[in-house]
Amino acid sequence: TQLLEQSPQFLSIQEGENLTVYCNSSSVFSSLQWYRQEPGEGPVLLVTVVTGGEVKKLKRLTFQFGDARKDSSLHITAAQPGDTGLYLCAGGSGGSYIPTFGRGTSLIVHP
Amino acid sequence: GAGVSQSPRYKVAKRGQDVALRCDPISGHVSLFWYQQALGQGPEFLTYFQNEAQLDKSGLPSDRFFAERPEGSVSTLKIQRTQQEDSAVYLCASSWGAETQYFGPGTRLLVL
């Protein structure tokens, strides 16, 4: 069974701060997705990374896939209250259509 | 276009009752997934359909759980003789292929 460990589990910060959340595994993934889930809603896909070392930017969010494709990070610059939510990473491996989800990082950004 | 919809959004059941949860995927999406999400956890895979064929049901926790997608579009997840440990959010997702999944808002099931 492939496991994805996310850290930290909880994060409470003030508006304007920067933060990084991590997604780590001992397994290699062919692709990795980051989702944000708001209370009472389903997860919404933010980005998919597929190449080791790949960096993708989405406005104030920067996603990185590790060189060995076993880990990933999400960095948020100047966090805003609208960034509040549960951030989930999910890994896919070649030949499997079932992604493995981490437990998520619950982020609260206070105004 | 419309996204994935699920109904009901909330369901309260007495222990031992049967429940049926509905998922309407994005039109034309071949793949459909059901997940169970406990409070404070990530989604856990239950079952997967490609069109009307149920290709994987390895995540269903017991034989009380049954899913179907008879015409390759709408899917129903049925839980028989509900137990308190079945309380969770049940998420449905659909996709063209295997990796980019679009999730519905979920059905929150509470078994008393």
Write the layout of secondary structure elements.
The complex is a heterodimer of chains A (111) and B (112).
Chain A: E1 5-7, E2 10-14, E3 19-24, E4 31-37, E5 44-49, E6 55-58, E7 61-65, E8 71-76, E9 85-92, E10 100-101, E11 105-110
Parallel strand pairs in A: 2-11
Antiparallel strand pairs in A: 1-3, 3-8, 4-5, 4-9, 6-7, 7-8, 9-10, 9-11
Chain B: E1 5-7, E2 10-13, E3 19-24, E4 31-37, E5 44-50, E6 53-56, E7 65-68, E8 75-79, E9 88-95, E10 102-103, E11 107-111
Parallel strand pairs in B: 2-11
Antiparallel strand pairs in B: 1-3, 3-8, 4-5, 4-9, 5-6, 7-8, 9-10, 9-11
Task: Tell me about this structure.
The complex is a heterodimer of chains A (111) and B (112). Chain A contains no helices and 11 strands. Chain A has 111 residues and is mainly beta. Chain A has strands at 5-7, 10-14, 19-24, 31-37, 44-49, 55-58, 61-65, 71-76, 85-92, 100-101, 105-110. With 112 residues, chain B is mainly beta. Chain B is globular. The relative contact order of chain B is 0.33. In chain B, strands 2, 4, 5, 6, 9, 10 and 11 form a 7-stranded mixed beta sheet that branches. A 4-stranded antiparallel beta sheet of chain B has the order 1-3-8-7, with no helix packed on it. Chains A and B meet through strand 4, strand 5 and strand 9 of A and strand 4, strand 5 and strand 10 of B.
